[in-house]
Amino acid sequence: MSAPVIDPVRPAAPDTPAGRTTPAQRTTPARFDTALGWNDRPGLAWALRILLCLIALVVFAAPFLTIFSGAFTTNPSGSSLSFLPHDSTLLNFRVAGERGIWDYLGNSLVIAGGGLLLQLVVCTLAAYALARHRFRGQALIMMLFMMTLMLPEEVIAIPLSLVLGDVPVVHLDLKGTVWGVILPLGAWGFSVMMLTEFMRDIPAEIEEAARLDGVGELRMLWQIILPLCKPALGVAGVLGFIMIWDQYLLPLIASKDPTDYTVTVALSILRTDPEVGSGVVLAGAVIALIPSLIVYLLLQRSLVTGIAAGATKG
Amino acid sequence: MTATVPAPAARKGTGRRAFDKKAVVPWLFLAPGLLLALVFKFWPMAKGIWLSFLDVRPFLGDKWIGLENYSRVLTDHRFQDAIGHTLILGIGQSVGAILLGFALALLLEGQARSLKFLRTAVFLPAVTATAVVGELWRLMYYPTSDGLLNSGLHFFGLGTVQFLDNPDIALYSTMVMGIWIWAPYNMVIFLAGLAGVDRSLYEAAAMDGVSLWQRLRYVTLPAIRPALMIVLTLATIRGLRVFTEVYVLTGGGPAGSTDVWMTRAYTLGFTRNDIGGASAASVVLLCVTLLLTVLVNNLRKRGEAR
């Protein structure tokens, strides 16, 4: 089930096992399974571990319950905030809806869907060329894609906002359109490198056999290579989605007025609106949280594989 | 690229026919990616470097002023404060998230189903959009005595803390949120590293009767060194360009006490419309980021060679 080792950061160490120990390896007692030698038998260490796990759970996961409970509480102030709602109401969501939260969510979904599609197509095409062809300047191109990772939106924000207002050569104004957010997300160095690494490992014999049958380049990619890359595409897809959903500065500088905001950026509008309380802000936060939550819970295996392989969030 | 894998010698032979059809194919596949990277990454970078030497005046035309933007930004006391804040935040956040991430990985390592569930839950902060996390922490930091964290402090008999409104504390409040976001992320990388440790080494260590600490120090730590270096590289880079965390939680306030390099540059460029100065600040950050990346990579290579 698990994806093979995809490791763009440490290509020198291909012998690192992908994830968990395989059943075949598990001939040693359980206490040699973990670095700290945790034991399954009840005892002092066992109780300590359970206590620490509970603390970790409260610290890292329980705060999310407060978002949900606050969002469903009529007028949460500090005092009524808790892990469980006092009274359940959809009022906050209705008020947030009047403030246009569903439009912002629509912007976000269009950008996430379009951006992810573009990103996957563009990165797959580039990876195919880099992995299955040899040409002059290959190393240079690889380096260029790696450099895009070092040029995050933060560092080029000011000139990028000028470029979005007046794209060179074609002189288009992308500000205020979803393209202003989607297009800059297209070439993501991480996806290109990860897919390239993965495609390189596909045996040449498969490709040669297809070539003898007269398969052209596009069909080769679509029908031969891509079906073999499903695990890597899953990783690229889920990480790409999380990365796009997390974008903050880019939608901010690509907008002309607040109606262009994505749902995550629009939270600041709700917060600074004096007429709505924190319950409405939390309702907005819930709406902004749910899509990434769904993607995470459905595809967490791919996500964890990708991050373990040296991914970057943004 | 036909049925036979071309040997280096054969490649040299075809080099003369550089424009034959086969040579064009890879470039067609690369074209969309290169075009997008060029227009939305490299062109803005070049433009930013160019603008950093100009006095950008709308309608009047830009004027070349050499390094004046740089000297203005680097001598500005708010930028100098921002360097300090960026370093404190970046280093504190990275070290905290690495230590806590390692502790979490040690705690949650294992095959049990309950542990898998725990790992899924603990990892939530890392996949949540930073803007949502910001709202969440504003709530936890609620400044009255009945706020979530403050009521916790009351329980232990401590007074109310103005987490985000006290200029002496706000930066550390931001740091705690950063650690909370990145510790689970580091945990996953460390878990992958721990999974790669040879189990027979643990067994051998037990036979030699070494202590738990020695086992961690001499068996586990060397084995996860590659994972540690990755985490360190990522933390360094993102520590310097921290923006969203600060922007959504405090906006740089109160009284500039949490202003970091990028929020400062953002204010300069978008609020005060000083494009030249903001570009100079971005170029400085870019250079430092590149320098650090190269440095960390060199350290990594040296570590691997050993």
From TrEMBL, chain A:
<dbReference type="InterPro" id="IPR000515">
    <property type="entry name" value="MetI-like"/>
</dbReference>
<feature type="transmembrane region" description="Helical">
    <location>
        <begin position="50"/>
        <end position="72"/>
    </location>
</feature>
<dbReference type="GO" id="GO:0055085">
    <property type="term" value="P:transmembrane transport"/>
</dbReference>
<feature type="domain" description="ABC transmembrane type-1">
    <location>
        <begin position="105"/>
        <end position="299"/>
    </location>
</feature>
<comment type="similarity">
    <text>Belongs to the binding-protein-dependent transport system permease family.</text>
</comment>
<feature type="compositionally biased region" description="Low complexity">
    <location>
        <begin position="16"/>
        <end position="26"/>
    </location>
</feature>
<keyword id="KW-0472">Membrane</keyword>
<keyword id="KW-1133">Transmembrane helix</keyword>
<feature type="transmembrane region" description="Helical">
    <location>
        <begin position="220"/>
        <end position="245"/>
    </location>
</feature>
<dbReference type="Pfam" id="PF00528">
    <property type="entry name" value="BPD_transp_1"/>
</dbReference>
<keyword id="KW-0812">Transmembrane</keyword>
<feature type="transmembrane region" description="Helical">
    <location>
        <begin position="280"/>
        <end position="299"/>
    </location>
</feature>
<keyword id="KW-0813">Transport</keyword>
<dbReference type="GO" id="GO:0005886">
    <property type="term" value="C:plasma membrane"/>
</dbReference>
<feature type="transmembrane region" description="Helical">
    <location>
        <begin position="176"/>
        <end position="199"/>
    </location>
</feature>
<feature type="transmembrane region" description="Helical">
    <location>
        <begin position="109"/>
        <end position="131"/>
    </location>
</feature>
<protein>
    <submittedName>
        <fullName>Sugar ABC transporter permease</fullName>
    </submittedName>
</protein>
<feature type="region of interest" description="Disordered">
    <location>
        <begin position="1"/>
        <end position="26"/>
    </location>
</feature>
<dbReference type="InterPro" id="IPR035906">
    <property type="entry name" value="MetI-like_sf"/>
</dbReference>
<keyword id="KW-1003">Cell membrane</keyword>
<feature type="transmembrane region" description="Helical">
    <location>
        <begin position="143"/>
        <end position="164"/>
    </location>
</feature>
UniProtKB/TrEMBL annotation, chain B:
<dbReference type="GO" id="GO:0005886">
    <property type="term" value="C:plasma membrane"/>
</dbReference>
<feature type="transmembrane region" description="Helical">
    <location>
        <begin position="120"/>
        <end position="140"/>
    </location>
</feature>
<keyword id="KW-0812">Transmembrane</keyword>
<comment type="similarity">
    <text>Belongs to the binding-protein-dependent transport system permease family.</text>
</comment>
<dbReference type="GO" id="GO:0055085">
    <property type="term" value="P:transmembrane transport"/>
</dbReference>
<keyword id="KW-0472">Membrane</keyword>
<feature type="transmembrane region" description="Helical">
    <location>
        <begin position="169"/>
        <end position="197"/>
    </location>
</feature>
<feature type="transmembrane region" description="Helical">
    <location>
        <begin position="275"/>
        <end position="296"/>
    </location>
</feature>
<keyword id="KW-1133">Transmembrane helix</keyword>
<dbReference type="InterPro" id="IPR035906">
    <property type="entry name" value="MetI-like_sf"/>
</dbReference>
<protein>
    <submittedName>
        <fullName>Sugar ABC transporter permease</fullName>
    </submittedName>
</protein>
<feature type="transmembrane region" description="Helical">
    <location>
        <begin position="218"/>
        <end position="237"/>
    </location>
</feature>
<feature type="domain" description="ABC transmembrane type-1">
    <location>
        <begin position="83"/>
        <end position="296"/>
    </location>
</feature>
<dbReference type="Pfam" id="PF00528">
    <property type="entry name" value="BPD_transp_1"/>
</dbReference>
<feature type="transmembrane region" description="Helical">
    <location>
        <begin position="82"/>
        <end position="108"/>
    </location>
</feature>
<feature type="transmembrane region" description="Helical">
    <location>
        <begin position="24"/>
        <end position="43"/>
    </location>
</feature>
<keyword id="KW-0813">Transport</keyword>
<dbReference type="InterPro" id="IPR051393">
    <property type="entry name" value="ABC_transporter_permease"/>
</dbReference>
<dbReference type="InterPro" id="IPR000515">
    <property type="entry name" value="MetI-like"/>
</dbReference>
<keyword id="KW-1003">Cell membrane</keyword>
